[in-house]
Amino acid sequence: MANGRQSLPLVLFFLLCHRTTFAVILRTTNKSVWTNEFDSIELTCLIESISTNNPRIEWKKIKNGVPSYVYFQNKVSGDLEHRAILREPANLLILNASRSDSAQYRCEVAAIDDQKPFDEILISLAVRVKPVVPRCSVPNAVTVGYTTELHCTEKEGFPQSQYQWYRNNEELPEDPKTSVKFYNSTYVMNTQTGSLKFRSVKKEDAGEYHCQAKNEAGTSKCSPQPMEVYDPDIVGICLKVLGGVAAFIFVIVGLCQIHKNGCCTCKDHRENNYKVPEHENRMDYTSPDEGHFRHKSSFVI
Predict the structure, then answer these.
(1) How many structural domains comprise the chain?
(2) Handedness of CA 266, 268, 273, 275 (dihedral sign)
(3) Model pLDDT for residues 40-72, shown as the tens digit of each residue
(4) Which of 49, 102, 162, 181 sits between 20 and 30 A of 233, alpha carbons compared?
(5) Co-location of 111 and 156 in the same domain
(6) pTM of the prediction?
């Protein structure tokens, strides 16, 4: 009886080991990995348990929801054909990674002799791309009190670049109110879009400006560009105003003169139309009957 009780745990242990042995179990050291462009990265697919010899191992790349084979029938295929190799036991080593390699990768292992003959594991890969030299736009000259905007952008970096502006090689704080030196400046910096907008330019805003694009893969910057700030040209503004007023007066006088001449012409035309015509012979248009009547009267007398 005692021997039976002692053998019971051994039987349970044997059954547990037997069940565990005949099952495919996979694991990975990291389900979310990254690398910089042109570097190498290894996706780990570790087989913790398996009984079948020579199991079927496959890797698939899933991008935008569409799967494609990476390792199938014991060879690498697709866009990784010459840039990846399978390493024991089922790891995938990607060489010279490119931005197009950013995707999800699924490791699948099938073992027909195991009670649990299939297992899979999903790994997400992000390939970081260093920013290229950003395109910077800085106005050459600005008048004091006017609004102006500087631009900086680049579209190659991944993840999306953040932007930082510098004046005379000194970093501008994102909020000028946090710095005693830049407290009176009116600029607004957008680190997401790369814009640097001055609401009202001041003399102390003059200098050489350059922008730096930065992400997790590295940094890149454009060459410094000068921005000069001038005082308003009061004399020039006055001359322009006076010129505008003179031109306005000239136009008004011209219109009045044209209107006046037009009215005189119409008046003369109306007088000519309605003037009673004069007869040159100035004959007395007396009725014939009236002369005949006087003659008759004299005859009676």
Answers:
(1) 2
(2) positive
(3) 999 999 998 888 888 999 999 999 999 999 999
(4) 181
(5) no
(6) 0.63
